[in-house]
Amino acid sequence: xxxxxxxxxxxxxxxxxxxxxxxxxxxxxxxxxxxxxxxxxxxxxxxxxxxxxxxxxxxxxxxxxxxxxxxxxxxxxxxxxxxxxxxxxxxxxxxxxxxxxxxxxxxxxxxxxxxxxxxxxxxxxxxxxxxxxxxxxxxxxxxxxxxxxxxxxxxxxxxxxxxxxxxxxxxxxxxxxxxxxxxxxxxxxxxxxxxxxxxxxxxxxxxxxxxxxxxxxxxxxxxxxxxxxxxxxxxxxxxxxxxxxxxxxxxxxxxxxxxxxxxxxxxxxxxxxxxxxxxxxxxxxxxxxxxxxxxxxxxxxx
Amino acid sequence: xxxxxxxxxxxxxxxxxxxxxxxxxxxxxxxxxxxxxxxxxxxxxxxxxxxxxxxxxxxxxxxxxxxxxxxxxxxxxxxxxxxxxxxxxxxxxxxxxxxxxxxxxxxxxxxxxxxxxxxxxxxxxxxxxxxxxxxxxxxxxxxxxxxxxxxxxxxxxxxxxxxxxxxxxxxxxxxxxxxxxxxxxxxxxxxxxxxxxxxxxxxxxxxxxxxxxxxxxxxxxxxxxxxxxxxxxxxxxxxxxxxxxxxxxxxxxxxxxxxxxxxxxxxxxxxxxxxxxxxxxxxxxxxxxxxxxxxxxxxxxx
Lengths: 302, 302
Fold this sequence. Notes:
CATH topology of the largest domain in chain A: Rossmann fold
Radius of gyration of chain A: 21 Å
Largest interface: A-B, 65 and 65 residues
Number of helices of chain A: 15
Helix content of chain A: 40-55%
Oligomer: homodimer
């Protein structure tokens, strides 16, 4: 099975490495060629456009930042669509608009090609370890064909129905993550503001009904003042934008999701976009401190 | 060591049973005498007022609904205070105002008695299993003296500093819990509204970065339409009121906590107060349904 991979960013690089390690032959393309160096060293083959990737592959995987990039790579000049022939499969592992996903899949079906939406959760560490959660929407037979690829990259792989349902599930995942990050930020900052022992509070709180993956994995980083990104604030903000767009189509109120969207937007606009999502706490710490977007001066006792 | 126990509600009953099982002699009082029947059968001794409990005990434990009840039991007519003598210890395991806690401890210290604030997390199941999380504020030596009692009732026991810090930590715990319940409610309701397979979504989402104790323990109850209380909405709402009062003294913004307080208040006012906290999802489901506070008519596909 010949596999193509387009998009070799923070996630795409380790994901394609996992595929190479599993023995798949990989043809790759990336807008910035330099980012392909490592996977080329590992045995991937470089070509000069998405169209050539599609021509050379049975299954084309994309891992791109947002809806416009996916649309351009699929249907732009020298795009995937131009290199496809009947029976080929496109797997979009980016997190993008569910509605656009459904439209893209329909357009590819006119070329007798199936598309799967297969966004992931688990961040760079999960991608490197091959333990990603993969949420798949699309045709069942196509899902089965692609399963060996998913198994090389992920651990918890779920088929959730028709095209778009992978993206919809991912947005449910992201709105929950965002509220958990808010809970962590407000909880840890309240502990700080009350001059409690934050480490002890975290230990006792995370062991019970208030426990979460975020408290276990990101809260210790906050206590160490480590704001390097596992997942960037600007990407979390993008996912919340997609979630809010989806919610608008329902005409319902999701006030927690609306709140996290406004707070992550504020954080991104404050210069925190490239930091890890745990950096959201700086919005709260900053209520008492001069804010420079990078460092944190401990709050003075009142 | 003679132990007194005042407050034999949903939590107090199993907690006092654990103490009896661990071999402590228990003298008990409860406003509603009937609720004491089970612990009396298990060997506890009934007396007619908090004052007599205090006179008969070295350590007096209280497990009461809110600040006014604790104040009345301590300092009201025939209250604990009237039965204390120097060297006795009061352990308040209720969740109440941290500021009031500090005042109560100071008043008892005038009688040469130490008080600990030791609120718990883990609900009725945790109380029955003796696996409560116990967050303790107060004098270190007094904490050490009471540790065997805590070990009979709980598993994760933390001493967090001076009086009030147990309550403060509990409120941090409760604000995090409330935001996790909101995340669960919005996430599961979005899955329902999008007509996704809620069980599959829950399985895939809870296994990754969106994972939480709430998703593991309460979300399956929602999917089974089980709204019996592990912890009641009206008590969660009370804890959020205490958290918001505490936050007001800081002059800072905690918008997530403010939001959950308003939503839990809305839920309590809608007749959901006696239901489990997972019942918060009904606020969201009700956006499309006639609301009777009890049942849920599945949303019609659009």
